Amino acid sequence: MSMQVVLGDRELIVNISGLEVAAILKKEIKIPYTSIVDVQPGSFEFPWTAVKRAGITTMSYKAGSFVIHGEKYFLSYHDAHKVVILNLEGAEFDKIVLESEAPEQLANDIRARCFSL
Fold first, then answer.
1. 40, 52, 100, 101: which has the highest count of C-beta atoms within 10 A?
2. Which string of b and e fits 73-106 if b means at least 16 CB within 10 Å?
């Protein structure tokens, strides 16, 4: 999946492209910075009890909407050890997990735009 994170003035935008758009049923996700309550770089362990709502799940690739422990997640990663995890409040998803080549830097860039963090 081709995924691009755009840090706008008031919101973070996740642009999704490629064939996965049909499986995920979304082309973009907009997240107001005011909805972000925590940002953490790190690793994500995908629980096999997750319920897929729309998306793709393979051994090495997770993308789409899932319900995990009663919370709504959006996942997009190949490498579960190079992700940024956003905890959200009052948004479409409770958590968003995005792969980044530089997770620490992306987390710092997002934090710099979130006045509440």
1. 100
2. bbbbbeebebbbbbbbeebebbbbbbbbeebeeb
